[in-house]
Please model this.
Amino acid sequence: MTPTDKAAAERAARDRLAADEAAATGPTRAAVTLRQIFARFWRHPSPWMILTVLATALTWRIAEGGWTLTDLRAPALLVAAFPALEWLVHVFVLHWRPRKIAGLTIDTELARDHRRHHADPRDIPLVFIPWRSLALVIAAYTTVALLAFPRLGEALTFILAVAAVGLVYEWAHYAIHSDYRPRGRLYRAVWRNHRLHHYKNEHYWFTVTTAGTADRLLRTYPDPATVPTSATARNLHAAA
Model:
């Protein structure tokens, strides 16, 4: 494919995506500023829950003292692995297909709310992690960290890092689904990646806070021009 043909294919893919989104979301979005959406972000419970964990862990960590370079090992690994972790959670937890085991239907609040999120990507409360599920996640990873690390300081630093990464995830996901239009090149790539997942095909583009990282590694980052528009992006697990 020549550079001209490639550019034409990319333009055609963008036009199809715009048409798909227009059909799915209805009227044109209102123009809003970054400051406006930041203020609205704090109207939802999960950012406050995560911020509380972050502030508590930071205060406790400062009081504990005894900072060493080993405190940075787990946070550094977390940041490096986060795109892959995000991909795995999205695929295997959020896109969980309900199934019966021993006569019981196995489903989760996270998966149920994520199906509702796909059905209406502009329903902002559904963008955020459900507070009940988040409370369980916070309790679980905090307990594991306190038991797993040899020093309390390392455990608190890890808890702090997870909270910081979680807050970044909630903000990025919310911003993508808000009425704010991206200006920077990096954010535009992230914005486009996630919107392709919602409006083009739910079987690809699973990362949220990055674009083309874990998706490239795990082969879910195709050229949009080569991917058919899914009939089930708004109705996960339905027969096409």
DSSP finds nine helices and two strands in the chain. The CA atoms of residues 28 and 70 lie 50 Å apart. The mean pLDDT is 91. The longest helix spans residues 152-177.
